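Lab notebook, bench 4. The sequencing result for the construct came back, and we need a structural model before the next group meeting so we can plan mutations. Quick request posted to the team channel:

Model the 3D structure of this chain.
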Amino acid sequence: QWQPALHLLIFMRNARVVPDEVTYNAAISACEKGGQWQLALHLLSLMPDAKVVPDEITYNAAISACEKGGQWQLALDLLSSMPDAKVVPDEITYGAAISACEKRGQWQFALNLLISMTDVQLAPNQITYSAAISACEKGAQWQLALNLLSLMPDAKVVPNEITYNAA
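Done. Here's the predicted structure in token form:
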């Protein structure tokens, strides 16, 4: 329901009610769920002028919107811009970015993101492993996919049926 969320945001501005971070996050999330990645990015770009500071929820929704729209490069751009915005990526951020790469068969980028999670003290989880394994599978890198699957127990991550299907 991205249209009502957008109308509410416009209505708030017209009524001189100042939208805050939660309002923008809800609108960006609605755009993500509605497949409106361009609109989600536009709303993100409006936040500084509105004196609203994006947080990890904002970026997670925007990266997920890019993922759903097949815009893996934009998803990676958003992830790499987070430190400049003083926003710390979390497991959800990496999961969305890895999934964006997976959707477009960018297994090298997906694998690099998975590996880089430990550099920022984040532990890969079932979602990030599954997305990276699926990216390897889509890139005909079945040996890498099986290798990732075999690393999961040492990382204390339990594979699920999605993980096994991807491998």
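The mean pLDDT is 92.
Will bring this to the meeting.
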